[in-house]
Amino acid sequence: MKKLSLAVFCGGVVAAALFGAFRVNNEGTPVPPASAEAPTDRGTTAADGTDRAFEPPKSRTITQHGIDGTINLDHDGRLVVDHDLRDLIGFFLSRANSEQDLPAVRTALLNHLESLDLPAETIAEIMATADLYIDYRVAAEQLQFGEDFSIDGIANRIETLHHLRREVLGQHIAEGFFAEEEAYDRFSLEFRRLMQDTSLTPEQRRQQSAALEEHMLPAAALKPQRRVEAIRKTQEEAQALLEQGASDADIYQLRAQRLGPEAAERLTKLDRERLEWQQRLGEYHRERDAIMSNEGLSEQDRQDAVERLTNEQFSEPERRRLRALASLNESS
């Protein structure tokens, strides 16, 4: 099996042929840019650019520095199957270059989930979902589409993918993982048809393009890029200020202005936790390296000393986190 990436069958060639300079998502499906003016009936826009009226019902979000994706639980503590979960699974699958790598990748994912102290049933559900997603990725790579890059040909490719997702993943997971991208798919086809309609004047084309966004592009499809873009810009500004000698108070003020005080508090706390973790990890690695380089100890004595050091400096959840990171490094 080739490296687990769907770009091999619906990638840059399709994007160039059909969508020009539009961005391409991680399956190679072309994604057009949103209008600079968002429709006014999509709900209240928060400080970070998200639409509050369309916020999914989540009561807990679990994330970890250095690992893409998050785990969202609803108000009853049940797993929310969404794009965030797909990103998490995809982060670990990106380590696999062949089917032989999958057991190690799966172990790394399991170690990561166990380090988060999730309920056993939630871990089991995520692992089962990951297995289905692997099956889908493998099946998608086997699809053959030929060289038809017409609108009808692209429509057939997209329809085939949409059907495969529901066949392998089931309706619930397929919708949770791909609803936003499939909304883009439908919008993109209509947008392309609009661009090829030579009977329209430039003004008519602009008006109809805005109407397509209004009626075919859900707010949920716009929300992630708004949120990510707002945070990215803010973090770039914060980094520039830090390089100029800005204080923590200056950084907090910037974030609060751009993203709101609650987001600023969360980012400040995350900065502090990341720094503390990196400091602890650095000290641990220095002490571990000193032990491993001690020629006065036997190999077994060194291993025992490292184990004692690890147990002394880290709690059990933290040790599981260390093992997850080690598994990731080994599978890279």
UniProtKB/TrEMBL annotation:
The keyword DNA repair does not apply. It comes from the Bacteria. One of its GO terms (cellular component) is plasma membrane. The keyword Chaperone applies. It comes from Alkalilimnicola ehrlichii. It is a single-pass membrane protein. Signal peptide: none annotated. GO terms for biological process: lipid catabolic process; protein folding. GO terms for molecular function: unfolded protein binding. Keywords: Cell inner membrane, Cell membrane, Chaperone, Lipid degradation, Lipid metabolism, Membrane, Transmembrane, Transmembrane helix. This is Lipase chaperone. May be involved in the folding of the extracellular lipase during its passage through the periplasm. It is found in: Cell inner membrane. InterPro entries: Lipase_chaperone. It holds the Pfam family Lipase_chap. Residues 29-53, 287-332 are annotated as: Disordered. Residues 299-310 have a biased composition (Basic and acidic residues). Belongs to the lipase chaperone family.
